[in-house]
Design a protein that fits this description.
alpha+beta
Length: 646
């Protein structure tokens, strides 16, 4: 009987211990799934991008309208006068679904007075008329609003009345809500004490855990989702029963042992053998725990299904030569290298013998581990891909090759403008005025295409190049002019944003506000374009680095001699146009590259100057034939003109 009790006790201990272990180790199931977490992050990112784009749009629009002379002339009058001028003197119209409001600010705590809303009876937010930038939830829309003050042009009215222009743009939240609901999420958007719910909040019990994600560009707004409740976890009945069975088995086991001692008939098992009748632990026969080499996976090993596929081994720049493959592109030769990437001329091959030359910009491998650098690199491709214009280098693909990132670009067979200018400078050969102006006008066309580029939803992207210089203008053998390298371009939708006070670009060509880290607009590119104009028209490189010229002060900026002092053959009106576009205060420059280009075109028409692509090609070809040596930035041949230095 003693042996039977021992065996029964052992079985009960094992059974109870198994139940106890199952109950303790069982994990609760619930919380957000990976799909829901991704949907949440995507919704926040999309909303953030839309807010940035809308903010850039309304800021620029309000500022532009506030500078319109007719607005300043009528803002101090009455509602009837302003309404009568709509469609005539006040000829502007809302862009898309924006709402424009003109009014007068009340003094001494009085509310603002609305003169006109365009469109009439359009839905307004409570922030219309309040100077500053705001956001407000109204039904299923998020209104982004900017209000700027306007001083009446009549000096008498200006003493007692101050006007304003408000521009508001509604963002429809329904698409984001629908995507979140499709992911089985419920929650709300919270902003300024207002809430807008989505999904089915009643599907979850009270006191459900909430997961909140702030919107980076609008910290006061938050997207809140209700996390599905946890289910399962430790089953207390199973744990209790397991403990009871194991305890009973232990009692039987001890009684059996004591009975065996009393009879003195118990035999001692040989070392390594099992006790007759004892249960064999499950682990002794289970495949769980075998090594992967024996054909089994340990329990809990994650599946590799869905892991990103590798398109090739890690790229070693030392091994990249003619004939080498980078993904599906075959290297012809290396074109150059920069601080962030190497550029290769590659051949893309397709079906039926199709071949095409492309430029592949391959990010340095050590930077691929830096998320900020990766965002910076990818932003360049995303921004430039949105610009479709013959005067901008086209982006064809954005491949990821293993752990390396690349940008596949249109290959321009030619040379950058800086090398051509160096060649001309070395030989003391002035660039023909018609060719110089033709290149500048085409460059302005390309930049304007970037400034006015729109996203797939029709929203303005607000792209600013921020590194316009001769080295970033390519001249093809056919005379085409193309702007390239949007590596540090700034846009309202980019993921990597330059912090306030951070400067990027080429200091010698930077507008003063960019050099000190202020927010920039398209007039920073106008300034740099004018600096390029000075170089190509005079044959002299310039250095307008604010830090280098601080000792000369702001007065008479830019500190450069008139263009005609360096090239007497130039039309004298170019002095005012080019130097004016480099004014220290951005308000004194042309409003955009279109305005600057128009000024240059007027000179061309007045002087009977014209430049076809063939004219530009002939000049470039002539300089290329003479370009035997390209000096580095330390060579005297490329030393820029710096006032006050010998």
């Amino acid at each position: 009987m003693g042996k039977g009790l021992v065996a029964a006790g052992a079985i009960l201990v094992l059974a109870g211990g198994g139940a106890l272990g199952y109950g303790i180790t069982r994990k609760a199931v619930g919380g957000m799934s990976q799909m829901q977490t991704t949907a949440m992050a995507t919704a926040v990112a999309n909303l953030d991008g839309d807010i940035k784009a809308a903010r850039a749009s309304v800021d620029q629009r309000a500022k532009t309208l506030g500078q319109v002379n007719v607005v300043a002339a009528t803002i101090g009058t009455d509602r009837g006068t302003v309404v009568d001028q709509i469609g005539r003197e006040l000829a502007f119209k809302p862009e898309g679904d924006e709402v424009i409001e003109l009014g007068q600010l009340g003094g001494e705590g009085k509310p603002p007075v609305t003169l006109v809303t365009i469109p009439d009876k359009a839905l307004r937010t409570s922030y219309m008329g309040k100077p500053g930038a705001f956001a407000e939830l109204v039904d299923d829309k998020l209104y982004i609003t900017t209000t700027t003050t306007v001083t009446p042009s009549d000096p008498t009215l200006a003493k007692t009345v101050m006007g304003y222009v408000s521009v508001s743009k509604p963002l429809d939240l329904k698409p984001s809500f629908e995507r979140l609901t499709a992911a089985n999420l419920s929650g709300k958007v919270v902003l300024g004490g207002k809430e807008r719910a989505f999904g089915t909040p009643g599907a979850f019990p009270p006191n459900t855990k909430q997961v909140g994600e702030p919107v980076p560009s609008l910290p006061e707004a938050q997207l809140v989702a209700m996390e599905p409740p946890m289910q399962g976890g430790m089953p207390l009945p199973v744990i209790g029963a397991g403990a009871a069975v194991a305890g009973l088995g232990l009692i039987f086991f001890l009684i059996g042992l004591m009975s065996g001692k009393d009879k003195g008939a118990a035999s001692v098992p040989a070392p390594g053998s099992t006790m007759p009748g004892a249960a064999i632990p499950p682990s002794a026969t289970s495949s769980i725990g075998r090594t992967q080499g024996s054909g089994y996976l340990a329990q809990g090993t994650p599946s590799l299904t869905g892991a990103p596929s590798m398109t090739g081994p890690p790229i070693n720049p030392a091994n990249i030569g003619p004939g080498a493959l980078i993904g599906r592109w075959q290297v012809v030769r290396r074109l150059g290298s920069g601080g962030m990437a190497d550029v290769y001329l590659c051949q893309s091959k397709g079906e039926a013998g199709f071949e095409k030359l492309v430029a592949l910009k391959l990010m340095h491998s050590h930077l691929a581990r830096n998320q900020k650098a990766v965002d910076h690199f990818l932003d360049e491709a995303r921004l430039a891909a949105r610009i479709q214009h013959p005067n901008v280098v086209q982006i064809l693909d954005l491949p990821r090759i293993g752990d390396d990132y690349g940008i596949v670009m249109e290959y321009v067979e030619g040379v950058d403008l800086e090398r051509l200018l160096i060649s001309a400078r070395q030989g003391k050969r002035p660039v023909p005025t018609n060719v110089a102006l033709g290149i500048l006008c085409r460059m302005c066309d390309g930049l304007n295409a970037a400034h006015t580029a729109i996203g797939p939803d029709g929203t303005a992207l607000g792209i600013i190049h921020r590194d316009v210089k001769a080295a970033n203008v390519l001249i093809s053998k056919q005379g085409g002019v193309k702007v390239v390298d949007f590596g540090i371009a700034k846009a309202a939708t980019q993921s990597h944003m330059t912090a306030f006070g951070e400067t990027k670009g080429t200091p010698s060509m930077m507008a003063p506000e960019q050099r000190v880290g202020e927010q920039v607009d398209v007039r920073a590119d106008v300034y740099a374009s004018a600096a390029v104009a000075y170089e190509i028209l005079t044959g002299h490189a310039v250095n307008l680095d604010l830090a280098a010229l601080a000792h000369l002060g702001v007065e008479k900026w830019p500190h450069l001699p008139p263009l005609t002092d360096l090239n007497a053959a130039l039309p004298p009106e170019l002095n005012k146009i080019v130097l004016g576009a480099m004014a220290f205060e951005r308000e004194k420059r042309p409003s955009d590259c279109v305005a600057f280009e128009s000024m240059l075109e007027e000179v061309m028409k007045a002087r009977n100057l014209s430049a076809s692509d063939k004219d530009i090609a002939r000049w470039a070809d002539g300089e290329l034939k003479l370009l035997d040596f390209i000096p580095t930035s330390s060579d005297t041949a490329s030393k820029p003109f710096i006032p006050g230095q010998s």
